[in-house]
């Protein structure tokens, strides 16, 4: 996350252009909106068939000192919200490539140089994203429910549990241990199969997927997250996508699995190859 | 099944996760150095971690 201006170090009293996104030039409108600092208005910088949506900012506002971490977080949260709001508003009427937070260029010329350099890449990605949206899917697990469903549905486990009461104390103790191990082993297998199934179903109704790492429930917590993924979905079949989630819910509810669907997002997860 | 739109308060962690790590990265030579941003990325991860658990 570096580094420098073209040719020389910027003077902090200088201005720069904060870049929000790149869009095809036939924009509907960017409205008369203020940018991230609440002062400079949004405007467009065009290069051939693309435009960048930018606003002028003072560089010193973005030079943060290493002191006062809490203030940095507060500042960042506010700025991130504003940036996101601007991009989401634009997204309602335009296909776009969202930038990472804090993308500032020195001036219009530097921006055009960049757009020249990346022109075909941006055009190609915009084409790929046309008519599509990014959605987040999260799946949660209720440990107890999952365990219970597994015990009920696995004959091996059920049988062993049934004979427990007929055993001597010491035999019962050993049997209980055997059962616990079996349950643990089967839970791992079942969870893996469930996840594969979910992924397989959603792949059929999406164009692309991007997974986030989640830590599998190690402790017996309820509503542990077991899956977090971003999907690129064609707007025209979004209802099918939702329907598949509903179907999965019906299928897996009895095992304590629930879903959350969040979106639509600017396609952050699908702009870089 | 809960269907949430992205701009509610509890989704700040979601926004941070995307906007700091993903999206188009403007080439180094055109980009201003943001001294505190490295710090920010670390802090943001802490926030995200605590929201998720």
From TrEMBL, chain A:
One Pfam family this sequence matches: GvpL_GvpF
UniProt key word ATP-binding: no
One BP term from GO: gas vesicle organization
Compartment(s): Gas vesicle
Highest taxon above the source species: Bacteria
GO CC annotation: gas vesicle
Keywords: Gas vesicle
Family affiliation: Belongs to the gas vesicle GvpF/GvpL family.
Protein name: Gas vesicle protein GvpL/GvpF
Phylogenetic placement of the source organism: Bacteria, Bacillati, Bacillota, Clostridia, Peptostreptococcales
UniProtKB/TrEMBL annotation, chain B:
UniProt cross-references to Pfam families, sorted A to Z: Gas_vesicle
Main location (coarse class): other
UniProt entry keywords in alphabetical sequence: Gas vesicle
InterPro entries linked to this entry: Gas-vesicle_GvpA-like (IPR000638), GvpA (IPR050530)
GO CC, one annotated term: vesicle membrane
GO molecular function: structural molecule activity
Tagged with keyword DNA-binding: no
Superkingdom, taxonomy of origin: Bacteria
Keyword Hydrolase: no
Record localization: Gas vesicle
Family: Belongs to the gas vesicle GvpA family.
Protein name per its UniProtKB record: Gas vesicle protein GvpA/GvpJ/GvpM family
Organism whose genome encodes this protein: Marinisporobacter balticus
């Amino acid at each position: 996350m570096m580094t420098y201006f073209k040719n020389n170090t910027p003077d902090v009293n200088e201005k720069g252009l904060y870049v929000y996104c790149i869009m095809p030039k036939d924009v509907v409108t960017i409205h008369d909106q203020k940018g991230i600092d609440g002062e400079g208005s949004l405007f467009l910088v065009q290069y051939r068939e693309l435009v960048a949506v930018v606003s002028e900012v003072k560089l010193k506002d973005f030079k943060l000192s290493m002191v006062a971490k809490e203030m940095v977080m507060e500042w960042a949260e506010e700025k991130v919200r504003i940036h996101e709001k601007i991009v989401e508003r634009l997204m309602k009427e335009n296909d776009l490539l969202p930038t990472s937070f804090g993308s500032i260029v020195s001036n219009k010329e530097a921006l055009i140089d960049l757009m020249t350099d990346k022109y075909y890449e941006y055009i190609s990605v915009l084409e790929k994203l046309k008519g599509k949206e990014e959605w987040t899917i999260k799946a949660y697990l209720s440990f107890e429910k999952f365990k219970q469903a597994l015990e009920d549905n696995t004959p091996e486990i059920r049988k062993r549990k049934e004979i427990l009461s007929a055993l001597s104390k010491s035999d019962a103790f050993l049997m209980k241990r055997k059962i616990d191990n079996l349950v643990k082993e089967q839970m791992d297998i079942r969870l893996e199969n469930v996840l594969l199934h979910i992924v397989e179903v959603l792949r059929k109704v999406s164009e692309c997927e991007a997974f986030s790492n989640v830590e599998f429930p190690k402790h017996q917590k309820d509503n542990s997250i077991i899956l977090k993924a971003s999907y690129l979905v064609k707007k025209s079949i979004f209802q099918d996508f939702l329907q598949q989630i509903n179907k999965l819910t019906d299928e897996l509810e009895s095992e304590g699995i629930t879903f959350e669907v969040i979106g639509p997002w600017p396609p952050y997860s699908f702009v870089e190859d | 099944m809960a269907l949430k739109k992205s701009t509610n308060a509890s989704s700040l962690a979601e926004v941070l996760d995307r906007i700091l790590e993903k999206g188009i990265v403007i080439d180094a030579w055109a980009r201003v150095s943001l001294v505190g941003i490295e710090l920010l990325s670390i802090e943001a991860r802490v926030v995200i971690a605590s929201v998720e658990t």
